[in-house]
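Task: encode each sequence below as structure tokens.

Item 1
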Amino acid sequence: MFNIEEELKKLPAQPGVYLMHDKHDEIIYVGKAISLKNRVRQYFQSSRNKTAKIEQMVSRIARFEYIITDSELEALVLECNLIKEHRPRYNTMLKDDKAYPYIKVTVAEEFPRVLFARTMKKDKNKYFGPYTSAGAVKDTIDLIHKLYKIRTCNKVLPRDAGKDRPCLNYHIRQCEAPCQGGISREEYGENIAQVLEFLNGHYGKVLSLLEEKMRQASAEMNFEKAIEYRELLGSVKKVAQKQKITSSSTQDRDIIALARDEEDAVVQVFFVREGKLIGREHFHMVVATAENTAQILSGFVKQFYAGTPFLPRELWMQTEPEDSEVICRWLTARKGQKVHMTVPKKGEKERLVELAQKNAALVLSQDKEKIKREELRTIGAMNQVSDWLGIGRVRRVEAFDISNISGYESVGSMVVYEDGKPKRNDYRKFRIRTVTGPNDYASMREVLLRRFSHGLEEKTRLQENGVGEELGSFTRFPDLLMMDGGRGQVNIALEVLEELKLKIPVCGMVKDDNHRTRGLYYQNVEIPIDRHSEGFRLITRIQDEAHRFAIEYHRSLRGKSQVHSLLDDIPGIGKTRRKALMRQFKSLEAIREAEVEALAEVPGMNHRAAEQVYEFFRTSAAEKEHNDNQRQM
């Protein structure tokens, strides 16, 4: 039994992170402290200064634990990681989990490409962004390809040069075909240099060039070409006009302000790169136990910049965040350069922060009802399901389904929902290996064993290497397993979990005679559910998604098997020789009738391979004749 009074006496006067647990052992709050002894004891001391929300949180604490660190900075980093992993209900939480796109120029290659990227890696390539609109990034990349004729293929050049014919882009004059030697490395490098200049916001040169080409084409009565240049000119101007706010300074900075009410806050961020506003974004936050703007901004900055690879040199803030000094040290360590945080008091800087605050207030007023509806549909629905089952808070759900046609190509699907929303990056497909015929129970057992055995092996490997668990991989286990069926499927899951010594709640999604969800099967009891509730709608979505994902995978495997060529069954005949044979003889019938000498003359074939093809068709013909004779007897 955890005795809070006794454990408080044992707290060290050292920096660290503390975790508060409720009676279900759910982590409900994570905090950091310069002195764990002083900070944690404050929660349990009688005081009139505590808000109602903090009083409510303290009343739910059943136990606490703590992790000692060497410094307050280390405590801040650990706090950020733990909040992101556990998402405690009483922490001020950033609702949005967005991955911003980048434009990647692969300058590490001899013939670089311009690509769309979701993450910025520490490699030798150049990244531009982050941008707030994936659509705008794709439009910009398309424009770059048209302007500078940059290749889009995945060939490794110059290694793969000349191996295939030039692609369609070459024929429509959007690529100079470096894969065929159509442009030298030096000339191509000049095009890439212009691309980098364009992405850095220097549009004047390309605008002047396009205007000159348009006038020249028009003077030469080449109106089709003139229209093409005019359209390109319009596209470049459209990109250039997106830079609405400029500054005399070319520093990269983010301008941050918020608007709040009792329960929620909206943080508005203006992204300024090289003095130009490249975009803006708003973020919804649950205020939880935060008491003022400084605490909310502190929570936002720590959570947002822990998840984005790009860090600006300056942050212009509406109010100085709580722990601003240690946050700046942390950001500086992450960037490798000094990061400044300022609260503008006058002039243009103050006006821009006020503009961000007004935008945040507008979003908060407009989106309030929308936010509540979405939360009811997702997190609220998940809480409803956990209440029906009588278990603690459920964040991550995994659902499984099996698909086959009379046992043919049996497959399993695993879909994942977090906070009531599908997490498609964590979906998994399983091709059944050990089960023959239509045995859904045995197939499900195989799928679950593979899923959780793989997860346990990954955990062990990572622990041995001193690496933390990788979020999104098989190491992340669910808070609840949902099986597409009743008692039989649930019992299979429970057997697997017991065999692997895992404790995860398992429920079945039970259907009626019309194949509609009617209830949940949990701990040998069928629990009826309200068919008009958001929880019911969420269960139906999960069940349909697991079924859809399995069916699609099964359909793709059937499609692949139907295009299987008879030539694939001949030993020694791979993809290259199969293509060469079909190119030479045009049909299987012609290959069947060919002699060994004719087969051996096909490029890529040798005498032994030709004999194997010849013997294969003669053996097949003999077997067919034998079978026909047997049927006639």
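Item 2
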Amino acid sequence: MAKSSDQIRNVVVIGQSKGGKTSLLEALLAKTKAIPRAGSVDDGSSILDHDDLEKERQHSIDPANGFFELDGVHVNVIDTPGYRDFIGHIFGPMSIVEAAIFVVDGVDGVGPYARKLWGYLAERNIPRLVVINRLDKEGAEFGRVLDQLQALDAKCIPLAVPVGEQDTLSGIEFTFGPEKGSSDLANEYSESFLEAVVESDEELLEKYFEGEEIPEETLANQVAVAVGNQTIFPVLTTSVNKDVGIAKLAEAIVKYVPPASNNLGRNAKVFGSEDEVVDLSTSGDDPLCGYIFRSISDPFVGKLSLVRVFSGELQQNGQFVNPHSTKTEKFGKIARLQGKDQVPVESVGAGDIVALLKLESLKNFDTLCSADKRLEIDPPSLPTPMYGKVLSPKTKTDEKKFGEALTKILDEDPGVVSKRDPRTSEMVVSAISQLHLLMVVTRLKSRYNVEVDQKDPKIPYLETINGNGDERYRHKKQSGGSGEFAEVALRVEPTERGTGFEFANEVFGGAISASYVQSVEKGIRAMLDEGCVAGYQMVDIKVTVYDGKEHPVDSKDVAFQKAGREAFRQAVNSAKPSILEPIVELEVSFPGDLVGDISGDLNRRRGRVQGMDAEGDFQVLKALVPLSELGDYSNALGAMTGGQGSFDLDLSHYEVTPGNIQSKVIEESKAEAKKED
């Protein structure tokens, strides 16, 4: 029987890498008897980090789902990668849970990327339990890490403190409730925890200040309220190796995490309407509304679509309206995921999470609904992938499989995009970072046996002229049969930036027939795409054909195309040709104490700072920068900011490329053309 949404908890486990999130979650599943024993990331026996790449690299790359039951409550947990390179994978899970378990390493503490992750949770108003993990490790300090957490947010207050430290760590004591400890450390935080709890309710706060006794049960119930409205972020302590705090963490999730019925005020739009919005009810009597927050493409078991049911009910062998085709589709089995293992279920109600099997048409962030109430939920905002390479299949055999394999990876990973550049005609695959793209290439090989070549994308330079040119060219070819003859005289001149191409016919007296003038234009337009300097598209130029000659027998369309092309080429070369480079508007967000580093780096990249604004502890800098200087900017910014920086860019305009760089571009273009020949 499907559980009611009040008896379901959905949490995402999130935190910086090396904090032991995956090991902690496996210990949690084992402690609640959801799995026979906890696996190990180090020896490759983890049920959550089960992918071959994850085993090899000993860290999470993809999210992983698990679940357990305790005291009649069903808990869905989603483990997420801790490396910033795979940040695209956290937004889907964050969009469908009611709370997060924010894990911090007891040794490393709150690092730069952890602060960024905390900010994402705060932006989305997601309640949090905080866990200081690995307190048995050398160098772990509860007090130091707690200070860092409270600097992050003063509402991080211990619910549990460690007994002993490192080698002597033996357990935990509570600062609140019937199990409250008596140590100095427990007493130190008991008052602040109690105050945070009563501050979440005006009536309790009044009783507290008046010295009136508040029943223990009332206070215990109020903790869940305080967590839900983010009056407090309870801090717990754990050690997987010493089995400290694991069981109490499971209890805290069940007691204090908001139930799935909470929904965090989520709503959906009525399909086809911009204004009509409905609250997402968790009633099983309402029409179906499900949300695909992650897709998994497994070459052995097929496609899995992970769905959070927001309203209605999912039953095996059920049906839904496909959001793309608007047709009613059927599905067969549904299953819960315990790592890679599928646990079949017959039905689930609102608030629950399951996987639908082998529905190839579904994509990340699709909304499933019923025919009588079509709804759609907005997808989460995702960081823009900025590290791109041109990927191409190595062999003919790879070529046949490349498109399908890449499509499956794109379906699975929202942090990877593929786009054909209309100016360069290259297919550019972009990811969050160099490591992220490396994982894409590695998976193409390991999963789908597809090998690819990589090269840097071409910068979409343009060519133009800065002066006037005037040339006459005669094309004459005689080879025994019908010959070719055409003579064309034309002028070229620059136009305003952004006007493109203009063609004018000033031929008088019938020197060239009108149809042949069209042939000249056709030949010149072909040259525009090829360029005359370095093989890039030519823009902002006016061509005027004013004279020429034709032959009654040998003149023809192809002859005037050739003559027009060559006259145009010669005229351009005499009109001070130059290369234009794309200038992008770059907006960078970074910690406020790094202004000098960020602006200095942009200066080295020929950037021009346009302005700067403060947003809390962060600065947002806007600059105009040549696109050619930003090839490694994603990695460089990550290194400078410890993963806290982010950036967006949009094409602003084109400018004439400096002479030294222009020469380099021309030489590289000639070398590439020679290689292709």
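Check on item 2: The chain has five domains: 5-264, 268-376, 387-455, 462-575, 581-661. DSSP finds 16 helices and 35 strands in the chain.
End of task.
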